[in-house]
Design goal:
single chain, 116 residues, 4-stranded antiparallel beta sheet, 11 strands, 0% helix
Length: 116
């Protein structure tokens, strides 16, 4: 059974940093690309970042390039999202995602609140 469990969210001041983690199980992690999405209050879920199965290819939403970094540790079955220079508009629930055999799998998300 595919499981994705996000952690690392919390309250941070503008300009601060957070690192989110997503622990994966129930599938061959090293063969799967991974994604982060986020959903701000009252808005639709939006794609944040992508990383290929081996970690060599990464892509980011244009508005986040330079502030967010996606990475993975295949030995730990974990994908990360390093978020720097956080802004109030980054406040959202952050979800990790994988796609297996045309099916999407999601974690329950972790809340990031950027506020002074």
């Amino acid at each position: 059974q595919v499981q994705l469990v996000e952690s690392g969210g919390g309250l941070v001041q503008p300009g601060g940093s957070l690192r989110l983690s997503c622990a994966a199980s129930g599938f061959t992690f090293s063969r799967s690309s991974m994604r982060w999405y986020r959903q701000a209050p009252g808005k639709e879920r939006e794609w944040v970042a992508y990383i290929s199965n081996a970690g060599y290819d990464m892509n980011y939403a244009d508005s986040l390039k330079g502030r967010f970094t996606i990475s993975r540790d295949n030995a730990k079955n974990t994908v990360y999202l390093q978020m720097n220079s956080l802004k109030p508009e980054d406040t959202a629930v952050y979800y990790c995602n994988t796609r297996i055999m045309d099916s999407d799998y999601w974690g329950k998300g972790t809340l990031v609140t950027v506020s002074s």
